[in-house]
Amino acid sequence: MRERTIASHFVRAAxxxxxxxxxxxxxxxxxxxxxxxxLMEPRARVAPEQFSRLMQVLWAALDDEYMGVGxxxxxxxxxxxxxxxxxxxxxxxxxxxxxTLFYSLFPDGPGIRxxxxxxxARLSVDDSALWxxxxxxxxxxxxxxxxxxxxxIGQRIRLTEATFSYAEPSHAGExxxxxxTTRCFGAERTSLxxxxxxxxxxxxxxxxxxxxxxxxxxxxxxxxxxxxxxLTSQIRRLLGxxxxxxxxxxxVAQQLHMSPQTLRRHLREEGPSFQELKDHLRRDLAIYHLGxxxxxxxxxxxxLGFSEPSAFHRAFKKWTGLTPGAYRAQKS
Length: 332
Description:
5-stranded mixed beta sheet
């Protein structure tokens, strides 16, 4: 569902590098269609297209795909050139190894490494050479390389584990969208682990499809993280957009071919409860509609299943710290 919204934490984290280099962050935000005042509220969220535009604005302003947190710049076009270097490889193994070799040619950047451990493969990123206090670039690189690898072979690579060399951050609740798997903090390295069988798969893309892919990537890969086949993502798809006719937990469990007790247990393991999932989906749909002018606030409240606009106002302020009217007024 492309209406997934993005926590304002990631916007503030993305601006760390530009601020460090003396750029006018308010001007950058406005260029991306994000009102600076929106970031004053920690719970605020932005639409994916706003975040995608922000990434493009930052790369252009800095001429740096590392967004100002590396010792050296990674000039615009570096990622695209790497993609051109790997697109003719026969297998994913060859492509990823060539990609890591490509980036190793640039000193003082994040070290990207692919290794096999039995039946598993580990893609790790060494960020020791970076000034990345929010771990924004290293998380972005993991997301981009995972999405790129999945696109190359034409199927989503299911992650077995995601490990992080730092303590669990305050925004860890967002990781279900970015890294839909078991997550381990305080680990030896920052990495993604998946079945090694994917490495033997052939590349299904070519120069023609790469050209289309690069029109929006890697910004689009970051802006529209997809939980894929995680349980919470499956439930979001089953709930759909019509909040007035949402199925109850028992019906969802039946559609997932499990008992309600098993569903509740799995949800406890992943984090959010069934009610929290519904609230998050309502929140994201509300932000999606408020960012457009097709519906009035009252119509949005009705579509989201609220009995009266005042209930929607209270819920939205609890979710984002802003009223629906204030949020709509902040949009570009």
